[in-house]
Design goal:
The complex is a heterodimer. Chain A is mainly α. Chain A has 11 helices and 2 strands, in the order ααααββααααααα. In chain B, helix 7 links the parallel strand 7 and strand 8. The longest helix of chain B has 18 residues. Classes of the chains: A mainly alpha, B alpha/beta.
Chain lengths: ~290, ~260
């Protein structure tokens, strides 16, 4: 029973890591550079939701505020790409990576300026609501997190596999020049990818907020999600989710059965192990270019 | 050449690759329903010319006219929408999409409902593609990828199809096969094409009109049968040896255009 309880909590936090990792992978696949501000975008998404929902602020209904917050963060993601990242189009990836780290800092300070540095908690309809199955306690927040992750994964899968725009995003990530030759507006597509990453970051942020308090430095969680993306194989969407789940599950078990501190080390130790054994990650989608 | 106004025309096109002047005033015409070939060695500027036409590179000077309208300096996707499709050098298929998805990407700019019938048309010319409809393009052979790239270009239903070295890296037999299909597409479907090639022999036999490019300039132009017969082309592009008194040449011929 204890194992099942740990597993459930692990899966729920794994879903959050997985969704942030998804944002890393989406942007990496499309633009071949890593967006280190992904965790801070999650933080911003969570705070925007807080602003909309909490009775101290605007007090909108929860289920209305979520889509609104997602839309706002998608717009912010698009704007970041269109106004800042796109200016570096064609520059070395290194420059873009440094730029995203800087964006992360800026977002953190903006959030601190607006909402303060004290931890705050989001008012959700399922605070303290629990389901009990013969000794197993399932928090409503855990059900929410897992359900939403499944739904979002399904939506993203359908979008990429079935829609013309999703297919164009895949094509542009596989061969940018050829996508240009097919008439795909690659720059606008990159902006849309950032918008999707902003949207998923918001969902992850709301999930995180539903399980605990948020403060402007929670974006540092992004580093753990980065490890998840590496474990899954940087470039594979199912891999990112799986990597997130693995890290989410390993943490509570290491905390319960390991010495103090093991739970903090475990995700990165696992990342190192995966890098040694399977350098391209579990779901590697790397193909060396043939001449 | 003079009976119809050209589908595609460039006037004094100049383009730079960094500091290198890659096009030094190129003027060509591609009439409707014809195949026009651009011949030239490595570094002559052929690919640069195609990239400039399709908008990936911006020209420094000069005009590109599609059906009389200036299109130079537009974004590449806008140019595709106006009817110029390119089959890029080295195939450049989408490696993780399957054959059908690759072909559908070719029709990305289209919103009419004849995409399905065009898909069948492409499969009728390349039956091999239909057999591998669900196979991922990255695992096709070079010849199959080239056929896929040509099919993908056709799916845009372009006013003009730009082909960049379709013979690159293929066996002579496959080159023959692909050029037979190119020729058939031109006569049966009326596809206007601009064909950039190093393989002068096969290109001149497939095309109607040819240009010869050297270091960024057009140095020779003419009907393909005229070019095939020209001594310069024979010597420098087809590798035909002239007869001489001792079965061995005593001097190197000079190009007449320099």
């Amino acid at each position: 029973m204890e194992v099942a309880q740990l597993l459930l909590g692990g899966i729920a936090s794994g879903c959050i890591y997985g969704l942030i990792a998804l944002g890393f992978v989406l942007i990496y696949k499309a633009t071949e550079s890593v967006n280190f501000a992904q965790g801070d975008m999650m933080m911003l998404g969570a705070f925007i939701t807080l602003q909309l929902v909490n009775t101290d602020y605007w007090g909108l209904p929860f289920w209305l505020a979520i889509p609104l917050a997602i839309a706002i963060m998608a717009a912010i993601g698009y704007a970041l790409e269109a106004l800042i990242i796109r200016k570096l189009f064609g520059q070395p990836q290194f420059a873009v990576v440094i730029l995203t780290i800087a964006i992360g800092f800026v977002l953190r300070f903006i959030a601190g300026f607006i909402w303060g540095h004290e931890p705050q908690s989001l008012e959700t309809p399922f605070i303290g609501v629990n389901l009990r199955f013969s000794g197993l306690v399932i928090g409503m927040d855990e059900v929410f997190v897992i359900g939403v992750t499944l739904l979002l994964t399904l939506l993203l899968y359908l979008f990429f596999a079935k829609t013309k725009l999703g297919m164009a995003m895949q094509a542009a990530s596989q061969n940018q020049l050829a996508a240009y030759y097919m008439g795909v507006p690659v720059k606008r597509i990159n902006g849309l990818v950032w918008a999707i990453a902003g949207g998923t970051a918001t969902v992850a942020g709301v999930m995180f907020a539903a399980r605990g308090a948020i403060d402007p430095s929670m974006g540092l969680l992004g580093i753990k999600a980065f490890a998840a993306a590496v474990i899954g194989g940087f470039g594979s969407l199912p891999g990112a989710l799986l990597g997130g789940l693995i890290i989410g599950i390993i943490e509570p078990f290491a905390a319960r059965y390991g010495a103090p501190g093991y739970s903090q080390i475990a995700p990165y130790a696992l990342m190192l192990l995966v890098l040694i054994v399977r350098p391209n990650g579990i779901f590697s989608q790397v193909q060396s270019k043939k001449v | 050449m003079a009976d119809k106004s050209p589908v595609l025309e460039t006037r004094n096109l100049e383009a730079f690759y960094g500091a290198v002047m890659a096009l030094r005033g190129v003027s060509i015409e591609v009439p409707e329903g014809k195949i026009v070939t651009i011949l030239g060695a490595n570094g002559a500027g052929k690919t640069t010319l195609l990239k400039t036409i399709s908008g990936v590179l911006d020209p420094e000077k000069g005009q590109i006219l599609l059906n009389g309208e200036e299109i130079q300096g537009m974004e590449p996707d806008a140019i595709v929408r106006r009817g110029i499709a390119q089959v890029p050098e080295g195939r450049e298929v989408f490696p993780f999409l399957n054959v059908e998805e690759n072909l559908r990407m070719g029709a990305y700019t289209r919103s009419d409902n004849e995409v399905e019938s065009d898909l069948e048309m492409v499969y009728s010319y390349f039956p091999m593609l239909k057999e591998r409809i669900n196979q991922v393009a990255g695992f096709l052979s070079g010849g199959q990828q080239q056929m896929l790239a040509i099919g993908r270009g056709l799916m845009a239903r372009p006013k003009i199809l730009l082909l960049d070295e379709p013979s690159l890296g293929l066996s002579p037999l496959l080159v023959q096969e692909i050029f037979t299909i190119i020729k058939r597409l031109n006569t049966e479907q009326g596809v206007t094409m601009m064909l950039v090639e190093q393989n002068a022999n096969v290109a001149l036999k497939a095309a109607h009109y040819g240009y010869v490019m050297e270091i960024g300039r057009i140095v020779m132009a003419g009907e393909c049968n005229v070019l095939l017969a020209s001594e310069d082309i024979q010597e420098f592009y087809l590798g035909v040896r002239g007869e001489s008194q001792r079965a061995q040449k005593r001097w190197k011929r000079k190009k007449t255009w320099r």
